[in-house]
Structure formats: C-alpha cells, structure tokens
Design goal:
The chain has 313 residues and is an alpha/beta fold. Helix content is 36%, strand content 17%. The N and C termini lie far apart (58 Å). The structure holds S-adenosylmethionine.
Length: 313
Amino acid sequence: MTTDSASGHSAPFFGSQRDFWWNEDFVGLVVERLGLTGTRSVLDVGCGLGHWSRVLSRVLPAVSEITGIDPEGAWVRQARLVDADRGRPIQASVDRGWGERLPYPDARFDLVTCQTVLIHVADVPTVLREMCRVVQPGGTVLVAEPNNLAGQLVRSSVSAQNDPEALASSIHFYATCEAGKIKVGEGNTSVGDLLPGYFAEAGLDLVGCYLSDKSSPLWPPYSSPEQAALVRAIEAAAEDERCPWNRDEARRYFLAGGGSEAAFAEAWSTRVRAVQADLAAVQSGSFWSGGGQLMYLVGGQKRPTVKQPTTES
Ligand SMILES: C[S@@+](CC[C@H](N)C(=O)[O-])C[C@H]1O[C@@H](n2cnc3c(N)ncnc32)[C@H](O)[C@@H]1O
C-alpha cells in the first residue's frame, strides 16, 4: 500500500540512525571484490529517501549517474541520492514506479541495486527478474537485505535479565508476525537468508554473499552522533509504542500468522513494557548493547550475451 503523504512507506525507519548503517570501507571492499570500480550508471530500486544511493555514491569511484525509483510519491519528491558537497558531478534523478514493472529498457544500467526493499515485496522473483532485465549483460545486481528475526536474539543490558521463556516468547511473537506478513503479501522480513536461491532463479550468477561488518553498539553516555541517533530511535519507539511495528500492523500480522487475539494482547503488552524499560535504562545510563544485526550484501552477475558463431555456407 502506498500513500502520497509525508509519512510514507517505512517512514518510522528513516530516522538519522539510518545514516550510520554501513562501514563505508566495507562497502568499498565489496565494490572491489565484485569488480564494480568501473560502474558508471546505477539504479536504486525502492530508493526511499536515498540513504543507500548516498553510500554507493561515496564508494563507487567512477559513478556518473544514479537513478532512484520508488512507488511512494513523498519519497520521489524528497529523495536525495547524492551528497550536496560532492566534488565530482553525478547526475541524479528519481522516478515513481514499482520494482515489479521497472519503466526502463533492457540492459539500461551497469549496476542495479536495492536495500531493504525485497523484505517488503510479495513477489521477490518478479522484482529480481526485472532488476536482472534492466542491468546490462556482465553487469551486477547488488542486494542488501537482512534476516530481521535474528535481531530478537541480540541482548542488551536490559533483556539479558530475562529468563529463557521470555526470550522464546519474543522469538515466537516475531516469527508469528513474520509468517503473517508473508501471508498478507507484505514481504518476508528475513528474506536475506534466501537470496542465493532467488538469484539463481532470476538467472543471476552469484558472485558474492557477504554480511555487513557493522553493528550498532550503544553504551553510556551515548555521546557520539551515531549513539545520539540510536537513542532517538529508542525514544521514538517507546513514544509511538512500535515493537517494531505499530500495534495495528503487529496485530494484523500476528493474527494472519496464526496467533490468537488473547496471545497477541499478552505478547504486545510485554513488548511495549520492554521498549519502555529500554528507554528508562537509557535515561538512567544503564542501557548497553553490542547492537548486532544480520544484514546480507549479495551480488549476482547477469551472464554476458555470447555471440553465436555464424556458419559459412
Ligand atoms: C525500508 S524502505 C528502504 C528505502 C531505501 N532503499 C533505504 O534503504 O534507505 C523500503 C522502500 O521500498 C519501497 N517499496 C515498497 N514496495 C516496493 C516495490 N514493490 N517496488 C519498489 N519499491 C518498493 C518503499 O516505498 C520504501 O521506500
């Protein structure tokens, strides 16, 4: 579902903590490993506000053109794909459209990419086939998608106090919502694990499957810009009661995933108490965590077209 409002798809996740998602030297290393240093034209599918494009614009040394595309009118208007202070000019533009039907000719781009978009789509193979269609033969499809279920295992100084049953309940709640989200056609929040198979189905040769080396550690006094951004995200989650979805979304996913109303009510109040406990611990300076996450960066190459030898008669 899309809206044209300023609070579009994924808006709660576009806080300033998103500027700190990657170690750029790591993304630069992946650029080298995948042989992308000569990349000139890039398509960023589901570009949102342009966070991923901006990272790529800094680590692709030869890039001269970045195109973003997103179904959300608000993001098309507001996206910024390139840093304003960049020395070398990069042509940037944003179109409105869907990954399932990319409005570009075959073989239009050197690199076609997306970040945390496939976790939202019902039909991943169709989007990947479209991405493969518009990349040039020998070009690369590069996808950054997580396993978000794994995040339930990451401990903080607060959750480390919980007993094993509380951990199991938290995983069960998230896994039930995840199953329901898939069922209602809004994507698999842990799709990152499945990318190698999807790439093969789309006719892409897997050339690299990596995990981001970035975690989001938090410890008092939370003084770095990144830590301040993470604290703001905890404050916002507690204020809006998002765990990580809002109540209506989570209820819809949980019920679709086979959970009962009664189980939802109990699990939801536990989760809201947990985000409030996190905030209280931050406010008293007793919250810390290594902030691990499981984010894949997967590259696949479109097979170069092989010219058939002509037979002389
Ligand atoms: C979590 S945001 C990611 C934005 C951006 N890629 C980033 O990482 O900052 C997901 C984005 O995918 C877009 N989106 C959702 N469904 C889509 C689809 N079927 N095709 C293309 N984009 C889609 C949303 O509008 C949203 O901007």
